[in-house]
Amino acid sequence: MTAVVSCDQSVRNTSDLLNSTLPLGTKSNLVKKTTVVSEEMASQIRVKLLPRAKCLFDEPVQVKVAGLRSRQVVTMRARLTDEKGVVFSSSATYRADGSGEVDLERDPSLRGSYVGVEPMGLLWSMRADTLQKRFQKNNSLNPQVVKFSVLEEEGEGRILAEVTNERVFIGKGVTRLRVKEGNIRGVLFTPPGEGPFPAVLDLYTLGGGLSEKRASLLASRGFVVLTVAAYGYDDMPKKIQEVQLDYFEEAMQFLKKLDKVGSKGVGVLSLSKTGDVALSMASYLAGVDAVVWINGCCANTLFPLYYKKSLLHPGLLFDMSRMIPTESGFGIVKNVINNPLAEENQATLIPIEKAKGHFLFVAAEDDLNWDSKAHMDELVERLKRHGKMNFESVCYPGAGHYLEPPYGPYCRSSIHYIAGTTVMWGGEPRSHAAAEVHMWKKIQEFFRSHLSCNDTQGTAKL
Question: How far apart are the first and last CA of the chain?
Fold first, then answer.
């Protein structure tokens, strides 16, 4: 504290002298001296990440700054580049306390990408420098590097201190294996240790590639996880006209035969369109003990569903003429899907009352892709009508469609691969981020509860 006062006084005295009449050489020497003092102060500023600078992607970090002047106002910035080369960034203005420290777990942001006390706000509030881009991190082998910077009060001012946060997707000892066996195409993640471990089939997307993020992080938490695609990946067809439930049954059987798998049944983790695939698996296939349905539909959508060459359900279709344009030029497609409860669409409804396993229904109330809350209500009501209580449900006000593992950049809008146009996904960033934190813990608790194994080993560490 004494040193800070001394530096401030030194600068004020120098300023007074420069405004007086002195020989030119004397002024030059004083300017040099002032610059040295300023540089020394800057060199004492430190930004720290606790408990460490390297962590799993789904873990929070505490961001702290020390060495500032008492009550100094600075700008905090976070920046990353995803695997598609898109730059995401955020910034927030903070005022140091009397000791020259800023702690994001304690101090409120005064302005910027968010306001108020938000310990992980610099991460979830990041936005792409290119419009309508979702954060892409499909390859789990490469960590996501985030650079935290402390800048002078002006947003693009001089950088005072920096630190790098390495956010990894695979915990220590977790193995990654490309799977190309029979019809199965995907990636398998296995925790360290002998097991036995519960098994999860991750249906992040039906096709067009694979995202390994959820699967690798779940494996780091003690699950054997296989993530698969049904088309558009590896040597699979680029497009499909129908979905074969046999493919997912084959993937389940592959998982159950693995040496380290100890759960009798398999868990299924879904999102959006794959939600109805997961419901169908639970309804028609043996051995599905737990299903997590996130922002899906209560009916089979888009493509007809077959099992052993027999049609189970036609696909519930949509009408793009019902898309609502916005002032930004991006569409809202919430109402384009046809009503599954209409008499002409009854054949698309999935008979989940046949399922012997358990369900966790997760719905975002501000989902603009479709009305996930209404679909969840129909699923719950259907189970209750048949005397079934094998479910849990959770709603998130203010959350949008893409609920994922926490601490990634929130996506407001991007290209819809079915609609072929840019759409709004819904949600308010702060509420959406909070929902992801809660949901991710809930998913793990649900799977552990319904995929229990004897002598299950602990989770992976860094």
Answer: 38
Instruction: State the virtual CA torsion across 376, 378, 382, 385 in degrees, nearest 10.
Output: 120
Global pTM? Answer: 0.87
* Segment (H or E) for 447: helix 429-450
The one catalytic residue in 367, 372, 413, 432 is 367
- The question of whether 358 is a catalytic residue gets the answer no
- Is 289 labeled as catalytic in the residue annotation? no
Identify the active-site residue in 272, 280, 283, 413.
Answer: 272
What amino acid occupies position 297? C
The domains located in the chain, with CATH, are 46-168 (2.60.40.2240), 175-450 (3.40.50.1820)
- Token pair of 281 as six digits: 């698996």
Active site residue 416: no
Instruction: Give the pairing of strands 54-56 and 87-95.
Output: unpaired
Closest by CA to 305, choosing from 395, 240, 401, is 240
> Over the range 119-157, which residues count as b (16 or more CB within 10 Å of their CB) and which as e?
ebbbbbbbbbeeeebbbebbebeebbebebbbbeeeeee
Dist. CA 92–CA 111, nearest whole Å = 6
Estimate to the nearest angstrom the gap between the alpha carbon of 264 and the chain centroid. 29
Of 313, 375, 401, 450, catalytic = 401
Taking only the tens place, the pLDDT of each residue in 88-117 is: 999 999 999 999 999 999 999 999 999 999
**pLDDT (tens digit per residue) in 392-444:** 999 999 999 999 999 999 988 887 777 778 888 999 999 999 999 999 999 99
